Amino acid sequence: MMNRLIKLATSMMMLLVLSAGPAQASLLWKVSGNELTQPSYLFGTIHVICEDRFIMNDAIEDAFEQSETLVMELDISAPGTMQRLQALMVNEEGPYLDRYLSEEQLETIDAYFRENLGAGVAQLGGLKPMALNSMVMIGGLPCADTTSYEVYFMEQADEQEIPIVALEDVDFQMGLFDEIPLQEQVDWLWEMISDSETGEALMESMVQAYAEQDLDALMEIMMDDPQFNHYMEMFIDERNRNWVAPLREQMHESSAFIAVGAGHLPGDQGLVNLLREAGYEVEAIAQ
């Protein structure tokens, strides 16, 4: 039971980042045809990764340099976005963990927070479980130095004076987690902390699959828990379908480098297949 909950918790926190894999393992795809005057590129990201696992090569850089617009799920560089994100991470009703956990569980979480996050429940207990889960997962990465594809591409866009287009806003993204019962999210947090070794091992296996661009293996890991399917539609499939129209419009306006969580690329409802169904040629780029 505990291992199942840990798998679900870790998978849920990666939902905005990762998912299934297509027949051709690749993070970078070329989109052409269907009256496009120039190709666009689709790249699957992971929001946080150890620096020594960061994948960057000539193929990715060339695709970016050929693009005139950077398209992302969220533009965190937009004015007011980070302030809004910080505000949305706070539970509106204040501290809540004591309503869902025993005194002994609270003491365990408090000790874990102090040792690994530098602050206890008194300081962090007002944050939503999603924020706490993210902090725990990042803290569990086997490295001191981490990096982010989103930040990297935004910095490149700034240097090259390339405009950034966001597919969603921060209120929408954070609202996805608000659809999940608080009790369920607290349960995930507890299981991740009470058996942190299992959670860290699962996270490592996911990151390894990403680093190897083996999205089939990644899907196998995440779909091992049947409850994952309950949230797949909300976090991945529905959003993918909603993105197709604005992506089509953007690609016909200018060549775009589309950097979204790797989980949005594969599967029947993945962007690779949806764009093909919309009439485009979508080809994996060898690296």
TrEMBL record:
Which protein are we looking at?
Answer: TraB/GumN family protein
Q: Does the keyword rRNA-binding apply?
A: no
Q: Where is the signal peptide?
A: 1-25
Query: Which keywords appear in this protein's UniProt record, sorted alphabetically?
Result: Signal
State the organism of origin. Answer: Aliidiomarina minuta
